[in-house]
Amino acid sequence: MNPSTIKARLSFWQLWNMSFGFFGIQFGFALQNANTSRIFSTLGANPDELPLLWLAAPVTGLLVQPIIGYLSDNTWHPKWGRRRPFFFIGALLASIALFLMPNSSALWMAVAVLWMMDAAINVSMEPFRAFVGDKLNASQQTAGFAMQTFFIGCGAVIASLLPTLFGDVLGVSNVPVNGGIPDTVRYSFYAGGAVFFFAVLWTVLTADELPPENLEQFRAERQRSKGMGHALSEIFGGLLRMPKTMAQLAVVQFFTWIGLFAMWIYSTSAVADNVFGTTDAQSAAFQDAGNWVGTMFAVYNGVSALAAFILPVFARATSRKVVHMSCLVIGGLSLVSIFFIQDKQLLLAPMVGVGVAWASILTMPYAILAGALPARRMGYYMGVFNFFVVIPQIVSGLLLGYVTTHFFGGHTISTLALGGASMALAGLLTMIVKDTAAPAA
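RESULT FIELD:
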């Protein structure tokens, strides 16, 4: 074994540097999650069309993450390492897409840019999950994922609030002109593009990587595995060869992400209809609802940033799956409660529960999974695990519009409640998961 591959315990600031890029990645994701439905609606999309238009996000994740995971596992550059080339390329492309998105003048353009933006964000994000498994020993892996969750929360809080800050503090117009995107949203995406690129660049420049344990063997295996056919066989064959723990977590992930996808798609239209009393996407009230949803999302992301460091303490006292179960049930019931709230200030309360759930979603499944995966295929299996994030989103994209129209009379607040019930069910299903590793410090 190469002595340089032994995983030493990292300092707080080393954990900070290797995770800081997630601040930028989540900046981009938060702008996407809080504003995409708003942009689509402003450009003329009907509520029942939104899930189909959102399919770009999960489909690109389905295709990109396992492929990038496989490629990064089979990459080694003496200077840039294994994961960092993908961090950088994804950040560059995502920043360009963030600048393009608010300049879409037609619905088809916004959908096309969403495909580009989500693919690019996934190129950066997937190797970050494997990065923790690469660099940290078992005793620090939960802390490593918690640090990522902290930066995810911080980035998302600021990004979610940006339209409101531009409008209320800086006096930027929040009204769409001639059917275009409001300037508050436009400037927010510009800021997001810059933050995304420079935050990821910080990690690229300040974090190092461990070389493969046996570099000659690594190169020989990489030579044997060349070819797209072999790569695709390996990637999608992973569904049949995944560890038992991954299969159990897959069921939990399925119902969890139905709830999250419903929240991201329908929060703006649901709050506009149920609290602001409008379904007209060109109205000032609808755009005010969009800003308020940004504030709501800032609350849940802020709570997740704080909870990220508290949850490992509870995990040590109980178990990781008990913590995950409790958090998902709390988050699901919180989403359901939005159905009964008609005061915008009160809408902030359930976001606390959603934030607790989000912190666990970003930490516990990956910490449980990392302990069950072979180290040399960490990126590959993390990519395969992403199937169970995107498949429920694809199912939701195909079905939620129909359910909203034919079962809920077009009232998206009911679809939001359905998503909450799905998340609570995911929490109960967590008890089927076998977590063989001890909770990490």
